[in-house]
Amino acid sequence: MAKYCHGIDKKDEATFLSIWDENGVYELPRGKGTGKAGIKELLHKVWRQVPKCHHHITNPVIDIDGDYASAVSDVFYYRESDNGLLQLLSGTYDFEFVKKSGEWSMKKLKFSSFATISPIFKENIEA
C-alpha cells in the first residue's frame, strides 16, 4: 500500500507497476485500467491530469485468508490539478491482494467517491 503512494506521488513508474498482479484492476473516477498495460495507461492519464499529488493512507483494516487478502483504508491527499487548482481530498480505497510464488501483489484497487473536497488557495500556502 505504501509502494502505491510512493510510486504515484514520486512518478516512479517502476515502483508503481511492480506492485500489480499481471491481471490487476485499477479503478478510479477518471477511468479503469486492466492488466499492467491498462494500469500503466491510467497511471499516465493521472499524471497528466494531476501533475502533483501526495497520498496518505490511514486506518487500514487488512484481512488475510491464505493466498488472498483484502484491505480497506481511508486516504487523504493533496493534489494540484492540470489547471493549477490546489485541493485536499479524502476518500476510501478498497484493495485486493494475491500471493503467487511467495510474493504478494495487488489484484485490485478501487477508489470510492470523495468524502471531502476542500480547495486550498495558493496565497495561503505561500504566506
Describe this structure in words.
The structure is a single chain. The chain is an alpha+beta fold and 127 residues long. It has one domain: Nuclear Transport Factor 2, Chain: A (Roll). The protein is built from four helices and seven strands. Strands 1, 2, 3, 4, 5, 6 and 7 form a seven-stranded mixed β-sheet that branches. Strand 1 and strand 2 form a beta hairpin. The termini are far apart. The C terminus is likely disordered.
Distance between the termini: 33 Å
CATH topology: Nuclear Transport Factor 2, Chain: A
The chain-level mean pLDDT equals: 91
SS strand fraction: over 45%
Just name the CATH architecture: Roll
Question: By helix and strand content, what is the structural category?
Answer: alpha+beta
- List the total number of helices: 4
CATH class: Alpha Beta
Radius of gyration: 15 Å
The H-and-E topology, N to C, reads as HHEEHEEEEEH
**Which spans of ≥5 residues are poorly predicted at pLDDT below 50?**
121-127
Q: What percent of residues adopt helix (DSSP H or I)?
A: 25-40%
Based on Cα principal axes, name the global outline: globular
The description of the largest β-sheet is:
7 strands, mixed
Q: How many discrete domains? A: 1
Q: Count the E strands.
A: 7
